[in-house]
Design brief:
Shape: globular
Helix content: 55-70%
Distance between the termini: 102 Å
Order of helices and strands: HHHHHHHHHHHHHHHHHHHHHHHHHHHHH
């Protein structure tokens, strides 16, 4: 009796997918329902790590109407910071609004995946194959795997990584619009509809490239899609997107916002592009382990840098990756969607897993966009392998997997509750990572627990004696305690181990200014601004000491620069400066 009821339920579920309208309504409801459950405990989680510099203390997002300031802060992430400015305009630094926007974007991408898979099954290469009958089910399961996978928490719950989510949204939207434009041609409806969709593809592609730099692969993805799914290639339509490839590198070059060599500051030793690439071979295998078995996640991995191609772990990783790519190529004709999904995974990882060394060799949020490919691999793979004969088994296995992923996501989100819970988790998993102790030391400093802060910062320095940030942060603790000699010593040590960190000179300038050594203070602000021309606080502080030296013209110039980067200069100081300039002009 129970067996008959179970079989009837499975038949009803299968029939639900066969009715287009009801299947879509059911899919939307289910996606929203599971998404809300998985992320229901995140909406009051506090700001973390990069959130401080990019949101909490970022003066560039304080005025939504001043788009020039937002652009100057980080041009290739302009759209992302406009969204942060929108949040700040609505609710200041109330975390609920920021989390709500992140969650809605994540939900929207899951819905886009559902649409993307469905329209992919309408392409010439997919419309006639057997599993196309299961297209709505594959689309839904793909969307739910993407939505509920715990690896996504590093992009959704971590507020600043909205850049990753928003970039993925425009990336996928642009590709979907391109597919729709191509389908109109296949249906012989070329005209206004095709042209409008094609133009929208270009527009969303450009928007994506000013959301985050990893979207540089989008033109290549459009070409790959054309090659995989359309029999009559329209190379004149698709190859034109290659003209967009220089946008990101050219903008980065002229804006000077990204320091690709800064990894050396974090690991204590210089790393070449070759060593970074060798390390990425192992990192990608780690990523594969995390997507298939998402346990023991870590916000800040302590990952060894590979030094040689003949290391056993590097050779094994290279073999695994080549085997996967060979399989994708070998079975391309028979399992086209599966092969494309594998290509998607590797292509979208490429910007952050190649020869260009970035600040960190491994970060979980870099899997956000590649997870679209993995979700498709898992869902389409089940239907390819088990086929229609075992549809009941698929309808049992995949929902169980999705439920387990949702539970893991819900549990992982507790780690993001506050800074202490996050860094305690990191220290438990990476006990020899200097940055973890440094960041927990910063948290203790903000809480006024200076004894614990000094203890953690001492450990960070012991683990990495060349860690400039730890010296600066310990100097800040000493400064807060009134131990100016100790603070000055730490700032000078930070400059010694890393003369290219602007914060060391800025803080040292503050110490000299407090002591009344105005010339020394200005000299250090000069050095800080040479390293970071967008350092609004340094302009503001230097203006104060120019004012005290009665160099009013220089003070006014610095104040205007600070305001140009969104800094909110105190009105009392502005009034005093303007009065002084007026009196000087009268004399």
């Amino acid at each position: 009796m129970k067996k008959d009821k179970r079989e009837k339920a499975l038949v009803k579920l299968k029939n639900l997918f066969s009715e287009p309208f009801y299947s879509k309504v059911f899919a939307v409801i289910l996606i929203c329902f599971l998404g809300i459950i998985a992320y229901s405990n995140t909406f009051h989680s506090l700001f973390h790590y990069d959130d401080r510099a990019n949101i909490v203390t970022n003066t560039a997002i304080r005025n939504l109407s001043n788009l020039k300031v937002i652009w100057n802060f980080w041009p290739t992430r302009f759209i992302t910071f406009v969204s942060f400015a929108f949040n700040y305009y609505l609710n200041g630094l109330n975390v609920f609004g920021y989390h709500a926007v992140n969650f809605v974007i994540h939900l929207a991408i899951a819905l886009l995946i559902f649409w993307f898979v469905n329209i992919t099954f309408r392409t010439p290469a997919m419309i006639k194959i057997n599993i196309s009958r299961s297209a709505p089910a594959i689309a839904l399961f793909s969307a739910l795997i993407f939505l509920c996978h715990p690896i996504q928490t590093g992009s959704v719950t971590y507020i600043y990584q909205r850049s990753t989510c928003l970039a993925a949204f425009f990336y996928l939207l642009s590709l979907c619009l391109y597919i729709k434009s191509r389908l109109t041609i296949e249906e012989k409806k070329k005209g206004f509809k095709w042209l409008s969709l094609y133009i929208l593809t270009w527009v969303t592609c450009i928007i994506a490239m000013f959301t985050k730099e990893n979207t540089i692969t989008l033109p290549l993805m459009i070409i790959l899609y054309e090659f995989c799914f359309f029999e009559r290639k329209k190379w004149s339509h698709v190859l034109s997107f290659l003209a967009l490839l220089p946008i990101i590198p050219v903008t980065l070059y002229f804006s000077k916002t990204t320091d690709f060599g800064s990894l050396a500051k974090l690991v204590g030793n210089p790393i070449t592009g070759w060593h970074y690439f060798l390390t990425q071979l192992r990192v990608i295998v780690t990523y594969l382990r995390l997507v298939f078995l998402p346990i023991n996640q870590n916000f800040d991995y302590d990952y060894r840098i590979s030094q040689s191609l003949i290391e056993p772990s590097v050779i094994m990783s290279l073999f695994i990756l080549l085997l996967i790519l060979f399989t994708a190529v070998r079975f391309f004709q028979r399992y086209k969607l599966l092969s494309f999904s594998i290509f998607w995974f590797f292509l979208t990882l490429l910007p952050e897993a190649s020869f260009v060394p970035l600040d960190d060799v491994i970060l979980e949020h870099r899997l956000y966009l590649p997870m679209v490919g993995f979700s498709l691999v898992l869902s389409s793979g089940a239907f390819y392998i088990l086929a229609e004969k075992k549809i009941k088994l698929i309808m049992l296995i995949l929902p169980v997997i999705i439920a387990c992923l949702a539970i893991l996501t819900y549990n992982r989100n507790f780690i993001w509750k506050n800074e202490l819970s996050l860094w305690n988790d990191v220290i438990r998993k990476s006990p020899y990572k200097a940055r973890a102790y440094n960041e927990r030391g910063v948290v203790y400093t903000e809480e006024g627990d200076f004894a614990r802060a000094i203890s953690d910062l001492n450990i960070a320095i012991q683990l990495n004696p060349k860690y400039a940030y730890a010296y600066v942060n310990r100097g800040n603790v000493y400064g807060a305690q009134g131990k100016l000699v100790n603070a000055e010593s730490d700032y000078l040590k930070a400059i010694e181990v890393d003369p290219n960190y602007a914060g060391s000179y800025y803080n040292l300038g503050n110490i000299y200014g407090f002591k009344g050594h105005f010339d020394e203070a200005i000299k250090n602000y000069d050095l800080a601004l040479k390293l970071n021309p967008r350092f609004a606080e340094a302009y503001n502080n230097r203006a104060h000491y120019y004012f005290l030296k009665k160099e009013y013209a220089k003070a006014l110039k610095d104040i205007k620069r600070a305001q140009g980067f969104g800094y909110n200069v105190k009105s009392t100081f502005l009034d005093a400066l303007n009065n002084a300039i007026t009196k000087e002009n009268k004399i």
